[in-house]
Write a structure and sequence with these properties.
The complex is a heterodimer.
Chain A: H1 9-12, H2 38-41, H3 43-73, H4 87-120, H5 137-154, H6 160-172, H7 175-181, E1 203-205, E2 222-227, H8 239-246, E3 248-252, E4 272-276, E5 288-290, E6 295-297, E7 304-306, E8 312-315, E9 327-329, E10 335-337, H9 352-363
Antiparallel strand pairs in A: 1-2, 2-3, 3-4, 5-6, 6-7, 7-8, 9-10
Helix pairs in contact in A: 3-4
Chain B: H1 2-9, H2 17-23, H3 30-43, H4 45-48, H5 65-74, H6 96-107, H7 128-138, H8 140-143, E1 150-151, E2 157-158, H9 166-175, H10 190-205, H11 219-242
Antiparallel strand pairs in B: 1-2
Helix pairs in contact in B: 3-6, 5-6, 5-9, 7-10, 9-10
Classes of the chains: A alpha+beta, B mainly alpha.
Chain lengths: 364, 246
Amino acid sequence: MGSHSDGTPHQSGTVATTGTTEMERFPDPGLPPHRPRLTDVESKAAKRAERQVSLLFLISILGSVMFFVGYFGVRVEGPLYDVTNPTATDALRLQNLLLGLGIALAMFGIGIGVVHWARTLMPDHELVESRHAVRTEEQRADAQSILTTVYDESGIKRRPLLRNTLIGAAVVAPLPFIGLLKDLGPTNLDPLKETLWDEGVRLVRDPSGTPIKASDVTLGSTFHVVPENLNELSHHEGYLDEKAKAVVLLMRLDPESVNVSPDRADWNVDGIFAYSKVCTHVGCPVALYEQQTHHLLCPCHQSTFDLTNECEVIFGPAARPLPQLPITVDADGYLVARSDFHEPVGPTYSQRGTHVEEMQGEAN
Amino acid sequence: MVLALLLTGGLYAVATTTNEAKAQTETYTAQDIEEGQKLFLANCSTCHGMEGAGTPSGPSLVGVGAAAVDFQVGTGRMPMQANGPQAPQKAPQFDAEETQQLAAYVATFGAGPGVPEEEYLDVTQGNAANGAKVFLANCAMCHNAAGAGGALTRGKYAPELMGVEENHIYEAMVTGPQNMPVFNDANITPEEKRDVITYLKTLETNPSPGGFSLGSLGPVSEGLFVWTIGLAVIIGFTVWLTSRSA
C-alpha cells in the first residue's frame, strides 16, 4: 500500500498509461487487517454489552407498561378547559405525555437495543463479494445480431409507409391523456363570480348575525361582517363556500382623510367603508387593521393595503386592490349592500377577465 | 418623533356615543380629581398639554375616558418609555391609587368610556365557547388564535394576551389603544367582552394538552425546533449507527 503515493505515474496505478503490463498495475490493496473489538477479546466487556442490550429491551417493556398506565391509570374527569379548574386538562396533558412517551420508549428501546447488539456482539468479520464478470465480445455480437435481424425482418427501411404511420400513431396516442388533465380543474367557474351580497342584503356581525346600525360604527372601530342571508344556509348547502367569498371588513374612516373616486362616490356611508376580506394574492383573510395608519395587512405574505386610497396595494405580492362592497342604509338605519361586488373577490383565476367584463356590463 | 407620538395616541380623539352612557358609572371624589391634576401636570402635560388638549408631540385626551388612562397607565405603556413605532408595556410607573386619580382627572376633559364594572370581568359568569367564536372572528388575526401575539406592519406588533389583567383586556377592546381598532359595546356587547376574557383566561389557566407549545407561534418556532434539535438528533444517531464499535 505504501508505494501508491510516491508521485511517479508509472507506479501510482491511478493514472492509466498505454502499454502497461500486468506487472506494473497497482497491486490489489486487499482488506485492512481485522481489528477485534473489545467485546471479542474480553469476556467481561461482552458480558457488559449483553447487559446493556437487555437493559434497552427492558426500557422498551417499561415504555409499553407506561402506555397502559397512561391509558387505564389516568382518568380525565370533569369538564375540559374550565376557566377556574384546570384539573381535567392537566390530567389530559399527563395522559398524552404517558401515551406518547410510552410508545416512543417501547419502539426506541427495541431499535437501539438491536443495533447495539449487532455492533458489539454479533460477528463483524469482513466479507468479500466479487463483481460480476465483464460481458464478453461474443455476447455483444449476439445482441447486435438480434437487433439487425429485427431491423431486416420487420422491413421498416423498405416500407416507409409503415414507419411513418407508426411514428404518427405514437405522437397522437398520448394526446387523450393530456385532454384528461382538463377534468382535474373545475368545469364551471361561474360560482366565483357571484357572492351572496345583493341589493338590500343587510350587513350582519360575524358570528352573532345581528344587523349593524350606521351609528354603531364609530371612528376607529372595525366590524367583521357577513351577509344576513348567509345564516339561512346550512353546512350542506355550501355555508362555508359562501362565507369564504362573502366575508367583509367594515370600518369608519374620517371622510376628509380618504380619497374616493367619482364612480364610487355613493359606495360609502359617511366614511363607513366595506371591503372584501379575501386577499387578491392567494385568498388569505386580510383582517389585520391598524386604525392609526389605516393599513390592512395580510398575515400570509404581508401584502399591505391602504384603506384611505380604496385599498391600493402599498406593499407585498398582491396585484390588485381589495374589491369594495357598495353599501347604503335602509329605512330602519341598518347598513345594507347596494349590490354585489363589481368584480370577483379573491385571487386571479383563468376566467377572471371575462367575468370582470360581464359584471361591469351588468352593473352599468 | 411627532408622528410616532401621534400614532400612539391619536385615537383618543375618538369619543363614542355608545360608550358615553358608561362614563358616569364610576364616581370619583373631588380630591381624586385634584390629586390627579397634580400628577397630570407633572407627568403628562409635556406631551398632552396643560389642559389635555394635545400638543404637536402628543394627542388630545379629550373624550378618551377613564378606561384609556386605566389601560395605558396601568400597563405601564404611559408615560411612554421611548419614541418608536409602538409604546411597549413596562412596569407601571404609578400605583393603583395614583392611576385612579389620573383617570378621574382625565375623565373630566370630556365624556368617554369608564373603567369596566366588576360584573363584566367575572370569568365565572362568562362563556368561553362563545368567547372563542368572538375572539376568532375579531381578534385572532392579529393576536394569534392562542393569544400569543403577532407582527404588524413597520415594526408594530399585537402584544401577547396571556397574563393580561381582565380589566386591561376589557379596556383595550373598548378604547382601541395605539393601532388596535375600537370594539365598542354596539359591536361586541359587554357580555361578549366577558366571554372573550373568559376564553383568554381559560387558555391561561389550562395547560396545552399536547405538551410543549413552543410559544404557540405556529410554524416559526416549531420549524426552528425541528430544523435544529430534530436534525441534530438524527445526525447524532446516523453517526452512532455507522461508527465502529470499540
